[in-house]
Amino acid sequence: MLKVASLSVRRGSKIPIFRLSILSVARTGALSLTGSPNSSQHRYSAGALSPGPPWLSVGHAVRFVSLPVSYSKEFEDSYSSDGPDWENFGTLSNEMASRRWFKKSSPYTRDLQHEEDAAAEQEVSELELEVVDKTLRTRRSRNTPYWYFLQCKKLIKEKKLQEALDMFSNDMLKGERLQPKEFNYSVLIGGCGRAGELKKAFKLYNDLKKRGMYASDATYTALFNACAEAPSKQAGCQQAMKLKEELRLKNFPLSTIMYHALLKSHAITNNLQACVHTLREMLQKGHAVTQETFHYLLMGCVSDKGIGFRLALQMWRQMLHSGITPDLQNYNLLLRAARDCGIGDPATATNILLRPDHNKRTKTKGGRGVINVDLLESQLFLQQDPNGGSQGKESTHLVPVRQTENVPLPVDPESEATAPSLLDLFEGKPCSVVSLGTVDAVSDRLALIGGVGGFLEKLEEKKLGPDLRTLTLLADTMEPSHQALQLLLKSAKQHRVKLDCAFFNTVIRNMARRSSLEDAKAVLAVMRERNVSVNTQTFGSLALACFKQEEGLQLLKDMQEVGLKPNIFVFSALIGRATKRLDYVYLKTLLKKMQDLSVWPNEVIIKNLEFAAQYPPNYDKFKSRDRYLLHIDAFRGYYQEWLTYMPSMMAKEEKLESKTAVLTPVVADGLTEAERKQRAAARRFKSRHGGKKCLNAPAL
């Protein structure tokens, strides 16, 4: 057999490839030559060939060389013209041999070939594994950062913040190894801010900066909101100031939304002066001052419990002089200031609020008044002396406006619609208020802004309808009466406001504090007419009017009849009323009820009981008899035993609860978080006073 080779022709042309089979002359006496060109195959038979080509002879080695194109052309021409039938040449080779290729090999060559084949197979297998791994990773990475943004937003809306954080860190970053976007961090920072997680919010912000990403307005707004909602007001204020300084160093322009978030953080952290400075900066940067701006400024006023109502009235007057019409949220905040804050020194409030030159409005070309921030700041932050007055000359006398005598504030609900209102005075309407007297009660502060009827009429004048929050705040600040309640019910019906149990609980609590128990119970009939169910807070509000033992025991009985268990707040109200009367028999009965119902005391109850167990100063029972102190010795002994018994019962209960939790960890202990905190407070009080007598005075 001859080794097969191919003839290559220079300049791109080729000649047929021949496969030669030289058989033994003795056996066959023939020579077969097969040719296979590119387009078709040619088989050459040597049977009709008399003398073959001179260079093909039996017994000689055949050598193929690359030939020039001219020679190959002559080769084909010569054999196509002189030779026999080339189409039938070499037809016997297919029958005589099946091998087409013949190569010389050795053991070393075969080993090398095996090694090359193994290496090739290894490379192919690694390539296949890489392709499979890439395919699986592509299949797993079907989610995008925006998809995770929507999922985290959904979880945060469902108040599942920790699940959203776990999805972001475990699934997105570690699982699919996706590169987060800015909006992924913004939605999580916003969720942490609303939940009061200040540290987690800034940890996410630092991670965003480490990845070389840039925060947007939404990110900074969420961070300022986290500062506002922080549990520690001091920490929130410090973080807000640091973030503001960081933005200043970066020359980052603050938008109106960011300024409002910064105002909110300053307002909630009781930093009204920072709110005024932020307002000045907003005006200098050309930002529009709107109702929302004054919404946060009023929040800053409400944070000051001493003079917050006066500050809110000053801010309200500035808002009206600026040409801004208050919205319903602003009116609700004014009611909050009337409920929670005082007015300060009446003389200072009279000089500031009733000065006539403040009632003029200076308008600009755009129709809005000019906000004099310097004047507003000087009036808001008057230096107070220890006696409650300001250090200026304004605190030494009253300045009458239109009359020379004071007009008493009306307390009759029927005349509330015509009561003088400072809101009318700020709007330039005639008002008969000359000076402000003692404004201690909440109803007196409400009367300064029109009372229930005047306030509702003011809302109607501004084409605003009260919502449930407005009516609840009015119920908490009004003078308790059935006429005022009817005004609220009429307004709710007119504006289609559905009153809930919290509204009626507020009315009951207001009447229980300032009226009788019968008036408070009359509200229950109104609740039944409107199909509003009572709850534990309803009976807690009623307990504020139970000064007698039979009233308190009947209240506890009524709770059990409707299927409600008395909680710590109900007993705290009952014990507070019994302590005011020093009814030791009533107190002893309540302590027994607490022991029977397994209601654990808190620090408020302990303080009231400690006060009741003290002997009055200079009291000598042998010289005089006091009917309120006849049973004090019996109560002191029972109270001492009760203090020893309750912690032991707490320990037994907690030990039983821990065993139950180990056996059935899914089953809860049946206590709310507030009740657990109350038990912990009682244990702390006992631990502080455990080494000494809880009674301050020795027994006689």
TrEMBL record:
Q: Which Gene3D superfamilies match?
A: Tetratricopeptide repeat domain (1.25.40.10)
Q: Which domain of life is it from?
A: Eukaryota
InterPro entries on file:
PPR_rpt, TPR-like_helical_dom_sf
Which cellular components does GO assign to this protein?
A: mitochondrial matrix
Q: Which GO terms describe its biological process?
A: tRNA 3'-end processing
Note the segments forming the PPR repeats. 181-215
Q: What protein is this chain from?
A: Pentatricopeptide repeat-containing protein 1, mitochondrial
Q: Name one GO molecular function term.
A: tRNA binding
